[in-house]
Amino acid sequence: MHDIWRDMFVVGIPLLEKILRPIVVYAFLVISLRLSGKRELVQLNPFDLVVLLTLSNTVQNAIIGDDNSVSGGIIGATSLLVTNFLVVRFLYGHRKLDQLVEGKADVLIENGKVRTQHLKKELITTAQLEAAAHKQGFSSLSEVEQCVLEPGGTMTFLGKKPAAEEVRHQELLGKLESLAHEIALLRGSPPPARA
């Protein structure tokens, strides 16, 4: 019974190494994902999913080393969580550095026109862009005025607003229908059917 408790809770590598390993891997992954582009965060196709899953499995041994103890796992996980907390807090107060780490937003559709060069740069196909627009309630890209790929990987879509002439036309039609209804009531006949 003594061996079970020792294997579970006695850390097999030095404590400082146990803390530093997750920090080094964390820094590597943040830099690698930043360099690979926002696409890795946006639309996971089967290939991207396989890469992310195998990546997590690949760096697992780098994080834990030769230690499979529960204590070692808790120390490693705590190191990752604390590192992430400190990085996020630090970047919150340093916007320029945050922008350098996270990157800038990229406009994929502007004034209703798809910017194909930006799609190529982010490795996003038109079909993937359409699928993202469908998820946000647009039936086609022709309804989209602007689409922005945010630094965190989300896509923000803004729909086209009707032109001022269209709005005025609809208002006039509404007023004409209202007048036709009132005239019909004054004459004592049923109002005309709506078109």
Quickly list its features:
195 residues, alpha+beta, 2 domains, 4-stranded antiparallel beta sheet, 9% strand, 9 helices
Q: Which structural class fits the helix and strand makeup?
A: alpha+beta
Figure out the total of helices: 9
The ordered H/E elements are HHHHHHEEHHEEH
Distance between the termini: 85 Å
Mean pLDDT: 83
Shape: elongated
**Approximately how much helix is present in the residues?**
55-70%
What does it look like?
The protein is built from nine helices and four strands, in the order ααααααββααββα. By secondary structure, it is α+β, with helices and mostly antiparallel strands. The chain folds into two domains: 2-102, no CATH class; 106-159, bsu07140 like domains (CRO Repressor). A four-stranded antiparallel sheet has the order 2-1-3-4. A hairpin with a 5-residue loop joins strand 3 and strand 4 (155-159). It is elongated, with a radius of gyration of 29 Å. The N and C termini lie far apart (85 Å).
Outline the secondary-structure elements:
Elements: H1 2-9, H2 15-36, H3 39-42, H4 46-64, H5 70-93, H6 95-102, E1 106-110, E2 113-114, H7 116-122, H8 126-135, E3 144-149, E4 155-159, H9 164-187
Antiparallel strand pairs: 1-2, 1-3, 3-4
Helix pairs in contact: 2-4, 2-5
Task: Describe what is shown at a glance.
65% of the residues lie in helices and 9% in strands. It is α+β, with helices and mostly antiparallel strands and 195 residues long. It folds into 2 domains: 2-102, no CATH class; 106-159, bsu07140 like domains (CRO Repressor, 2-Layer Sandwich), CATH 3.30.240.
